[in-house]
Amino acid sequence: MEINSVAVIGAGTMGAGIAQICAQSGWKTNLFDAYPEGLEKGLKAIDTFWDKGIARGKTTPEQKTEWSANLHQFTDLKMAVEDVDMVIEAVPEIMELKCSIFESLGNMTRNDCILGTNTSSLSIAEIANASGRPKKVIGMHFFNPVPIMKLLELVKHDNCSKDTISAAQMAGDKMGKTTILVNDVPGFATSRLGVVLGNEAIRMLADGVASAKDIDTAMVLGYKHPMGPLALTDLVGLDVRRDILLNLKQSFNDDSYTPHPLLEKLVSEGRLGKKTGMGIYDWSSGSAEETDLPK
Questions:
Q1: Residue 183: strand pairing partners
Q2: Which residue in 38, 64, 99, 238 could disulfide with 50, CB within 3.0 to 4.6 Å?
Q3: What superfamily would CATH give domain 190-282?
């Protein structure tokens, strides 16, 4: 099916980024958040991104005007989703919350509407079953920052239809993403590899192998990673990385996925990474600066 209209559920960092690229793709884009202040913050983030693009000569004022016209804000879920071609949910990684939303989406959207969930580790099948029409549900795992990162990890479960997969692949292409297709296993492909590398980097940091900057530089220059595993952990969110590890540990009954105590300590102190201004690095200046870590 051809996608012409999209609703994005959740106006946080990921949801706002997804809504931004949907608007830039020429689609009518409805951005929903249950909290007006969250919606306002998400829209401001999009506006700021576009203004920075204009200042750098990468975006024109005319493009911003065109894209802004595609973007619509909603605090009523039914009004946001009732006649769109695709919904992309981007709420926090809480299974009960996602299932509740998909139960509502199953009743509020058209029968041919594609339902995507942006999750980095939760069971797509469980979320899909909550909708009452699992054939139309697919995992759509975006990466932060969404407007810049080129990968879109599509996750199919056993009841996901070929038409749904094809529609999601075409949507990803329209958004300028390279899509990969993986099966619905805990951690999928990217999160499973990424959190293990990040957890081991934190272990090395705690063991005094090297400084955070030097560990990250080793992976950037030695293995051509675009960003070191510690800086990336800060960018994704230490709480998000911790929760993915715990989910993998439970799913596989494997203690090797246990979050390192330093990771747990940082999360307990509210040092969640760039979004809080402090994580493994100090981000208060806008860039990653080394800082003292808890003992």
A1: 156
A2: 64
A3: N-(1-d-carboxylethyl)-l-norvaline Dehydrogenase; domain 2 (1.10.1040.10)
